[in-house]
Amino acid sequence: MTSMSDIDDKQDKPDWLDKLGDYLNPALIFALLAFAFAGWQWWQTRIALNTMRQEVSQRLTSANEMAQESRILSRQTADNSRDMALRLGEIQAKLADSQNQQQALEALYRDMSKSRDDWTLADIEQVILTANQQLQLAGNVKAAIIALQNADARLQLINKPQFTNLRRALNNDIQRLQMLPQVDTVGITLRLDNLIAQVDQLPLSSDHEIPVKPANQPQLAPVDAAGRFSLELWQELKGLVQIRRLDTPDAALLAPEQSYFLRQNLKLRLLTARIALLAHDETSYKADLQAAKTWLTRYFNVRDSRTENAVKQTEKLIDSSISIQLPSLSESITALHASSLGRKP
User: 279: how many CB neighbours lie within 10 A of its CB?
Assistant: First the structure.
């Protein structure tokens, strides 16, 4: 039963509400919802497509860049490959040249190995002959010993039995040289140099000194001017003339320039004696020293201690023996020639 209130409510509602109520049925609402969902879906799909298009574009751009880089790397790789091929060809050529050189060196080494002993014997022969010349001409015993010891050391490195006789001869010559008496060449040379340095200081027998006026002269009685002048003139005249006694009547009175040449000739005599000492020429050595002693005793003041000392040193040098009977290296030379002949075909 319809109440009055319901009737009043129906009368109060406008007409458009009724029409709206007619349109808002469930099917229409579903359709609207479906349309709105489809629109939203289309919008999302469009956004997704745009996003995908941008990503694809970026990926294509990256792919193009990578492809370009790949092409660049490929060209570089190709260039490097060509360079490597060229270098490999050069290395192979150098390797071939090195192999050829190595083969040539091996062939040369084989040839040298065959004649190494001949080369060694030739070198040792030169050493022995040079040592023999030094021994006979200059008397250099130490140099000869060193040369023979070096030759023996080279033979020791070869260590072959066919050189036993040669090594035995070398050792025999070394022992003979080592047993020779030693001459103090250095000491004698120093004493000669000392004598040469003293020559300029030695006084000559003709040298004399003008006596100095005594400090305490007697006081003369005062005289007039003429007498004093005569007395002073007499004193000066007495100083100009001196009387001196000579022990030997034939003592040489030498002028200053002659004294200079005398001293220089004496030095030359001593220098010549030193040269004879180095050459072990005892005859020339003693002859030069004997001449130097004669000049010292004849022209120099032997009463002076310096001259007396120089004469004594000269006599000691004359008594020194510098001559040595030097052996030859004939045994080593003979053994060397025998070894050389034994190796010839």
Answer: 14
Q: Is the pTM of this model over 0.70?
A: no
- Residue 208 structure tokens: 């004399």
Q: Is residue 307 a contact partner of residue 296, using CB atoms and an 8 Å limit?
A: yes
270 CB neighbour count, 10 Å cutoff: 24
- Pairwise CA distance, residues 212 & 95, whole Å: 100
Q: How far is CA 235 from CA 143, 149, 210, 241, in A?
A: 71, 80, 14, 11
177 Rama sector, left if φ>0, alpha if ψ -120 to 50, beta otherwise: alpha
- Give which of 91, 144, 89, 156 is closest to 120, Cα–Cα: 156
For residue 74, what pLDDT is reported? 83
Q: Which of 311, 299, 320, 317 minimizes the C-alpha distance to 198? A: 311
* Chain segment 170-191, per-residue pLDDT in tens: 888 888 888 877 777 788 889 9
Query: To the nearest whole number, what is the mean pLDDT of the chain?
Result: 76
Question: Over the chain, what HEC string results?
Answer: CCCHHHHHHHHHCCHHHHHHHHHCCHHHHHHHHHHHHHHHHHHHHHHHHHHHHHHHHHHHHHHHHHHHHHHHHHHHHHHHHHHHHHHHHHHHHHHHHHHHHHHHHHHHHHHHHHCHHHHHHHHHHHHHHHHHHHHHHHCCHHHHHHHHHHHHHHHHHHCCHHHHHHHHHHHHHHHHHHCCCCCCHHHHHHHHHHHHHHHHHCCECCCCCCCCCCCCCCCCCCCCHHHHHHHHHHHHHHHHCCCCCCCCCCCCCCCHHHHHHHHHHHHHHHHHHHHHHHCCCHHHHHHHHHHHHHHHHHHECCCCHHHHHHHHHHHHHHHCCCCCCCCCCHHHHHHHHHHHHHHCC
pLDDT computed for residue 111 by the predictor = 64
Q: If pLDDT is split at 50, 70 and 90, which confidence band does 7 have?
A: very low
